[in-house]
Amino acid sequence: MKIVGISACTVGIAHTYLAQQKIEDAAKKVGDEVKIETQGTIGTENKLTKEEIQEADIIILAVDVKISGEERFKGKKVVKVSTETAIKSPNKLVEKLHEIVEKEN
Amino acid sequence: MQEKSLENFLDKKTIIVDLKVNTKEEVIKVIAERFYEEGYIDSIKEFIGAVYEREKEGVTGIGNHVAIPHGKSNTVKRNGVAIAILDHEIEWDSLDDTGAKVVVLFDIGENSEGAKEHLKMLSVFARKLGKKEVIDYLLKAKSIDDVINAFKK
């Protein structure tokens, strides 16, 4: 499965990147392809390309603040959670994403 | 290469091991004082104020006995990170039921435009805190070198 998404927290220093790491590790563990864009104090990094978004089976937004470029995901299945949820239970979150995608197909 | 620069980025002077404190207030104060002594901040009081502002926004205990409070304030002269390994776990609101035995406190200036490179290191560092291997090692750290070695994982 291909997962892409964005993480962003209030201060943009710590939780954003922690969430990114946790989601990526959890997804890779079950053999998914994953890429998480971060929108933090240093700006946007690991920016998602149009193709990556297009090819993704599901979009995960682990965000506590308004993000830029949410319109890029129009027409895609989007799941939104807080960075806390992503940090606390990344495995469960990825499991949930799988469930949602499987249900759709 | 990234690994090497991460080591350089950690300041041994802002790493404290075997810290004997009993409350969150105490540990934040000890670290703020250390930041002041090492020239990271101008005002202990203002910096502590900023840390508590952030605490109000949500829990900073990220689970697994680690807390990552942070303060963003004008009083910060140099962006940095302090790491305190406590001699015992203290109470700290967290994402799981654990408290804090490892406290990682970030200090960030309000105007960080000129410090992009450094902030980038901070983000690399924050990602490391999402790795269980790093945390397991940190929890057992007895010396400043142990702490630095943890981030080589």
Sum up the structure in keywords.
heterodimer; A: 105 residues; alpha/beta; Rossmann fold; 5-stranded mixed beta sheet; 4 helices; 5 strands; 27% strand; B: 153 residues; Mannitol-specific EII, Chain A; 6 helices; sugar transport (chain B)
Describe the structure.
- Chain B: It holds the Pfam family PTS_EIIA_2.
- Chain B: Residues 8-153 form the PTS EIIA type-2 domain.
- Chain B: This is PTS system fructose-specific IIA component.
- Chain B: It comes from Liquorilactobacillus mali.
- The complex is a heterodimer of chains A (105) and B (153).
- Chain A has 105 residues and is α/β, with parallel strands linked by helices.
- Chain A has a single domain (2-104), classed as Rossmann fold, CATH 3.40.50.2300.
- Chain A is built from 4 helices and 5 strands, in the order βαββαββαα.
- In chain A, helix 1 packs across helix 4 (90-104).
- Chain A is globular, with a radius of gyration of 12 Å.
- Chain A starts with a strand and ends with a helix.
- In chain A, 47% of the residues are buried.
- The mean pLDDT of chain A is 96.
- Chain B has 153 residues and is α/β, with parallel strands linked by helices.
- Chain B has a single domain, classed as 3-Layer(aba) Sandwich (Mannitol-specific EII, Chain A).
- In chain B, a hairpin with a 2-residue loop joins strand 2 and strand 3.
- In chain B, helix 2 crosses helix 3 (44-57) and helix 5 runs antiparallel to helix 6.
- The interface between A and B is medium-sized, with 22 and 26 residues.
